[in-house]
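Incident log entry.

Two folding requests arrived from the same account within the same minute. Monitoring flagged them as a possible duplicate submission, but the sequences differ. Recording both here for audit purposes.

Request one:
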Amino acid sequence: MASWLTKELLRRGFVYLRHLAVRLLASLGLFPLLFLNSRVKMMFLVVFLLTLLSHVPALDACPKCGNMLIPYPLSTSDNCGNPRYRIYCNNGALEFLSAQGLYYRILSINPSAYKLVIRPPLIGKDTCYSSDLAVGGLRLDENLPFNISVRNTVMLFNCSDNILLSPLNCSSTSYCRQYEEIEEGSGCKGTLCCHFLKDASMTSHRIRVRVGGCSAYTSVVDIKPVDPVDKWNYGIELQWMPPY
């Protein structure tokens, strides 16, 4: 049964290609070729189709950027991928462009899950300010098919007392207290900090920081509290809607 089905699918595919080639020949004014000997005609059609396909742009994948593969539909130029899924290859580093015009380094891509992870902003050791504080943190263009996934645990630092009115975890057991103990978070040690899971009830296009609110943040993807803090998977996971 399986063998018969395979042969039938191949036969139908061949018939479809033959009809496609005939229509192409006719549209190109090569209709007289259709009256050649069947064997000669079939050989010509095969060669014609292969030649035609060899000149079709490869839109299913872009070239590597450094050591990173770029799966479809992600695109680094107008000649590959889908332009709506634009990312950037800058000096061998793959980067994501935010709505505010800031580039974030892409750390990993999972094409089967339609997800990629970008590097969180740096936090100043003397100021406890995120490097993207001047533009209000991370914001994605809502007209593009990317959003922030629900697997991000976001930690906010140097917050005002107003944060205590929110449902965020600002207790002494908050994950942010552990982050303050490593070098990357040491500049925020002793400030009011909180953490929250970026769930579906929140905006999926922004992580906001501001002077007078919280001035710094970082993020961990799929946090595992039992792991040492320096082994957490630091990053901001974005997901994209597959093209139709």
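Request two (distinct sequence, not a duplicate):
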Amino acid sequence: MHDRIIADTSCLILFHKIGELDLLRKVYGSVTTTPEVAQEFQEELPEWILIEKSKTSDCKIASN
């Protein structure tokens, strides 16, 4: 299992559009995104999506 999953905007938008944003939580538990991605997403994020600056480069990226 990965220590941290970072979602980009396209991943969040696509899952949101098909009503399956919760699928990310079911698969990964929690998801982290950056403040820039959260702003670009333009929707309220669920509480299980953490917003913080990325501190490491060895994170798994969840994207389409």
